[in-house]
């Protein structure tokens, strides 16, 4: 039994060894990723236990995901090997056409991971956890995956959600808005992780205070509001915290938000205040963007502490 | 207008930088491949012109295929960018569980390449060519692709076919047998490229002489019969040629058969006898297996000549 | 027939895999470059057609240049294989002794490329183009190459010239000054690309306004004045535009000026105003300096647009 | 509780990226290895469970060993983090001065792994297992490690031992002989793994039949006698099996014997006969020597089966 | 006979090919380093001769150090091959948990280098040199190494010392303080190289002026006071110089201080004033941090001059 | 003063990281080579001292050659930096069109190395040596280089010559024949190193016995007759020795002959008999062909001994 459970699709990532359009890249570096898997690793680095409910294909990439997850301490009991489909993968194009930004090319349609379904959600497992996490990605990849999240949220003691709207995965932004809003309306969300772009889609506002007010009305208790390179904000009751981003050499920003989210939620669950949790979240996202790979540099609580004490940008 | 036209799906290949199960491979090397594309390059290295009828996605990998094809001299006029789907790719696992053998992991279901259809086959273009080539792979990837081959064969002056049965691409071997046999029955094949495994499936024989006799009855004029590391045979009328394989350090055998086929067909079309064409085909396949990449080492006629004169195994 | 034609020497570039003095570099990464080839690719990415008049050796590096050019859409009809000489190459030492700067080590004296001569310049081809481009490099590498430029400029409808004074290629700066000035005096230049260092040599001024006034007197219509990391200026008639450079992580600045020049000229030829053309030129040069390789990241018009809209430094 | 338990020192391996004297090697590839860890992975690939009793340092390399072991399915409950010392490592020099052979350079004296001691051996854990395995390496690295093996062997239901005499680790060969012989005399060994070199030291014979007779007198039930590239033999009661080695391209022979031993013991424990177990052991060692890394290519039972059916050398 | 002699332990460095915790690093790049060896190379690049008194093991890594030193022009006459022990090595973890900072993992306890002893110090050799250099590292690694430094300082005409307190190498900071202070009290130091952290430990002050006053009382003639990314200060008599650090892309700061120290001391010995020597020292340290490797980019006097003239941050 | 002196051009080698036509190679690995430099290293590995008389350019590659030579123990006193020209380089294409063979692409015409001249040959230095070595390459690269060899041979106590006819470097084979024969006629050669191809050109025979008889008539005392993969023969007086080649995995045969020659000559000079010297020469050439790089794996006398005792092909 674990403290936190996430539902989502773990993926194999092929990161460009050199920057630029993929057609000019000769070598690709393999990493294991996926928003919820990244989140789990951040939770664990901050000393809570975490399980992932997911499906992978009966293939080398699926085995790779399970072995990596196990190595990183994720409870893999509920990562199911689905013999009917393949493991989802994606490629990362870095630095083109926007320096320090990445573009993702997915090969995940119909993947084992997208076949996640309510039958994969074990009631007892869910009920034993302190918090259930998922993201807008899982809501987007298939109806059955969305239903799995709904079943888990239904049974959950508390919930966190990262809106994570990836336009490529939704038939329309309207569909994204509708789906995510219906979740927000139906379930009290302990921690909502989002940003101005997603909030624009969902609530047609971008200002952080407006966003918090509106999300609060929808039952959100704590808001983690990511501002990209500028940093992030966190709201809880009357507390409003802001932590500026650090200036570092960016290799690949992919996964930074997940590291921040998992770190924040893990510390928050352990009773840390939002300022502390936010600062650690920023430390995590800052480290993650300095390298290829989404979760290898997610710091432990102690290492984030060192970062926050010693790093002068 | 070109001498030879091939129909098939060009793919981006991600070849393992190190041998072994894919989950232990950290780096992948990108190459451009696909059986018919490999065939075209062999045709061109032997100084005939060649065009490829195919579809790729509207993405970096699609652009990569077109640019590489153009670089290698393939006529890309009929490589269509299909905005409805993605470019097919595959991974190569080398040396496990069989040393010197490779296993392919495809991400091509529903790809742009598999959406090849009769509408992509331009009558005038086909009629202007001396020979139309395709493979069992194109027959397997979709009904529309199969129909495209049939349309082209219907219009063709002469035809070559590589049976190339990839069990992963067929719903059943029975289906493969039926489809390929119906083609063989319907059209006179100038050059058939096959091997004992495929012939076992198609005709339930493996012995080369038996195979030739049976294929001949089906209208095959020339048979190129590949025997793996042992070498290959070629039959035409009363001529029966055998060329032993060379012993070299194997890096990846993928693509060797295509290089042999394209070389053989190109030389045969230029009036070379089967012994000569076969020897050059063996030179081509021998070089290709010494490296990652399916077509970079396919030799020109002159370089194959040097190989045949100078290489002492 | 193409919109733009450039005359110059394409080269194979061996870029240091790690920074520092070449003697400490263990691996070199091959790229295809050369100022005019880089220019052509920028022209094409901005949707005009472009041909390169050049010579390469009858060797693998020559074939590499032709194949790469063809892949990138350059009209290679007038890239001649010169059996009398070898293909020119160069090495790039990065980051020493000046961080973020590169030093070039040429092996091009007597190369096929430097044997470019007036006989390579086809009158009909030149006359069919809207603009002929060359650089101070081509003027420097040999008398016959200089004569080729002069013949082409003589026949041209309009001309662009990048002064590009590389002291290593000239017997003296005086010689460079004299040669380039004589061209400027003899031919109306539609677009002159230069910078304060070259202008100091040519006209003994560095101030942009002074430079423009003097170049204008010499018949230059549009001036693109590159200011390195600071950005660039463009002058046309009474319009004076300045675009600040973006701050990015510099890998190798080589080729940035060519990308800017080709982008600017291509857009200008399509009727874009100088501000637009300049901004796109800056986008191109900014992307190019973030990687090894001179032209792979040169953006399309659309991608530069995205860059200009989305990139926050 | 697990089927098999091994005691020994897991190590981080730095394998030369290129062959030759270490001073000419610029890059090193990290792997996780150690004779007993390799053995465990072979046991697991053949579908028994396996635990490793060991110590690692409180450092990144120690964490690396634990994470990798966990990923590969090893029970890591008894891998203790010893804060008093560091994790042992070694470098592999390949192909010099003997082609296809490797030399090991250890940095393990005083390592955490060598501090393994009887207190690390949990009686209940040992008694629950079907077989306890160790090697001459563990007997050599320290007195406390030797005592740990003795304690475990004392409590064990059955035992396997790989003599594995590494002269660098012993003060003298005499000491090695004495120590190992005393173990052989004191405990019945279910499976002894050894070779002519070690047997020469231990019993002053090298002939397989002589060796088996003498080992049998010492209470050995099954003998796995490794003959390097020639293959291996196995003896049990009156059965004497020989399996010839396969000719493959050798990258690094390190770890081949461990893969063979673990495979053989795992299958033998599952009731397979010695011929079957031996053949699978040879398949395992053959695959392992084709790559850098000691255990990544150790095949599953099913994959070894494919190897044995399909591999033609 | 040489101008400068340094005493210390040369080491083989294994630098992470990618940033992050060592357990996630797959490839390591070998360099030759060690504080005093780095110092020597800086001395030589500034055109004085330099010898290193040291021990290495009788192994490939020892040979590597000697060959590299010889290549770089270090007098290796007194680098002794000690057959009793091994060559010390270390790993560099980059960018975690602090971006742009590195952590060192040593395998040097009991190494040949730490066995440096007074018997290695040749009186005539020492007396022939203009300056003897060592660091707090050599004072820390063993009593015999400390005694070697004392013997050399006793015989020296003049001395430079870099305090270089590495907590991992000292039993306690108190021990470090005591040892270094006793050296400072006993010998007049021509040039002391230190920083606020070390000065805090030694004198319980950090302010540069305070530090200089106190060090001066202890007989220090010239003080080079390193301020990390901020730059450095130098004091001599009434001269107080400050040179700001340059902003560059940091790959690995290891070795920067040694390059600065060796450059400063070499130029100072040649009669350059402290401003000049300091500026060159900053140029050296700036270049060194842009790459992996401690000394490859240490500039010659002329190259530093170019840097100082041309580099605009 | 040294035992052996060689005259020739050291070169920087850029070896293909992957096999195949150079245009498909993306990365190149730098090595230091040149026939006479390789020879020198072999001499030194076998414990005689050796100096190289040569010129390099005043550039990074020239410095690279000097530093590497110094590292490997070559006396570099007479490697002159020639400011008038550049350092010669070459590329190696491996495995195409002949597997296991390499093709060299030179950029050395007019190089500093080819400007070697009699003025570089110091009489005292030459006279102090026991043997002067050069090759047909040095005789081919320029008249002044040839004259340098003649001057050195004139002054020499004894001489060795490797015929090493590289057709690309000679205007005609006739010229090669004439030049080398005139040397053979004019000077007694202590050791001649050659092979059937060169002997065919020189004497129009290939049979070893015939060759020896004819060379002997020309004053050759000892003949080392290389037979490629088959092995080599050596003749002295009435002794005729043959040593078969070993079968190993070939990476790049370049430099194998130089390693054999230097090893043979060095041992012969130390009084070893031809069988012993030949066997060690074969050990050296066998090791060299297993890697990229011409001299890194050239074994010491002791390591060759181990090879000869332990290597079972």
Oligomer: homohexamer
Would you tell me the structural class of the helices and strands of chain A? Answer: alpha/beta
Sheet with most strands: strand arrangement of chain A? 5-4-1-8-9-10-11-12-13
Give the DSSP E fraction of chain A (strand runs of 2 or more residues). 15-25%
3D architecture notes:
By secondary structure, chain A is α/β, with parallel strands linked by helices. Chain A has one domain (2-300): 3-Layer(aba) Sandwich (UDP-N-acetylmuramoyl-L-alanine:D-glutamate ligase), CATH 3.40.1190. Helices cover 38% and strands 23% of the residues of chain A. Chain A has 11 helices and 13 strands. Chain A has helices spanning 35-45, 60-71, 123-128, 136-141, 143-155, 173-186, 196-203, 208-217, 256-269, 274-288, 301-310, and strands spanning 4-7, 11-16, 27-33, 50-57, 79-82, 89-94, 102-107, 131-135, 159-162, 191-194, 222-226, 231-236, 239-244. In chain A, strands 5-4-1-8-9-10-11-12-13 form a 9-stranded mixed beta sheet, sandwiched between helices. In chain A, strands 3-2-6-7 form a 4-stranded mixed beta sheet. In chain A, helix 1 packs across helix 9 (256-269), helix 9 (256-269) packs antiparallel against helix 10 (274-288) and helix 10 (274-288) packs across helix 11 (301-310). The longest helix of chain A has 15 residues, at 274-288. The radius of gyration of chain A is 18 Å and the shape is globular. Chains in contact: A-B, A-C, A-D, A-E, B-C, B-D, B-F, C-E, C-F, D-E, D-F, E-F. Strand 3 of chain A pairs antiparallel with strand 3 (27-33) of chain B.
Question: In a nutshell, what does this entry contain?
Answer:
The structure is a homohexamer of 313-residue chains. Chain A is α/β, with parallel strands linked by helices and 313 residues long.
């Amino acid at each position: 039994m674990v403290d936190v459970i996430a539902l989502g699709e773990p993926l194999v990532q092929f990161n460009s060894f050199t920057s630029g359009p993929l057609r000019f890249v000769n070598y690709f570096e393999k990493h294991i990723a996926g928003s919820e898997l990244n989140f789990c690793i951040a939770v664990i680095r901050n000393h809570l236990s975490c399980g992932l409910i997911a499906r992978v294909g009966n293939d080398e990439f699926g085995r790779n995901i399970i072995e990596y997850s196990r190595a990183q301490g994720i409870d893999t009991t509920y990562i199911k090997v689905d013999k009917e489909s393949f493991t989802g993968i994606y490629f990362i194009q870095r630095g083109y056409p926007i320096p320090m930004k990445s573009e993702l090319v997915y090969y995940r349609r119909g993947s084992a991971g997208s076949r996640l379904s309510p039958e994969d959600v074990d009631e007892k497992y869910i009920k034993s956890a302190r918090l259930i996490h998922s993201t807008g990605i899982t809501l987007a990849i298939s109806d059955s995956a969305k239903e799995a999240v709904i079943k888990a949220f239904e049974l959950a003691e508390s919930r966190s959600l990262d809106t994570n709207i990836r336009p490529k995965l939704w038939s329309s932004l309207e569909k994204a808005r509708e789906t995510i809003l219906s979740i927000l309306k139906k379930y009290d969300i302990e921690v909502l992780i989002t940003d101005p772009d997603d909030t624009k889609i969902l609530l047609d506002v971008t200002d952080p205070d407006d966003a918090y007010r509106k999300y609060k009305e929808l039952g959100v208790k704590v808001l983690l509001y990511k501002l990209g390179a500028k940093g992030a904000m966190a709201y809880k009751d009357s507390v409003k915290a802001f932590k500026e981003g650090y200036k570092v050499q960016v290799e690949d920003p992919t996964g930074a938000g997940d590291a921040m989210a998992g770190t924040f939620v893990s510390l928050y669950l352990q009773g840390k205040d939002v300022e502390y949790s936010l600062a650690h979240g920023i430390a995590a996202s800052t480290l993650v963007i300095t390298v290829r790979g989404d979760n290898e540099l997610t710091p432990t609580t102690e290492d984030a502490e060192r970062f926050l004490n010693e790093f002068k940008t």
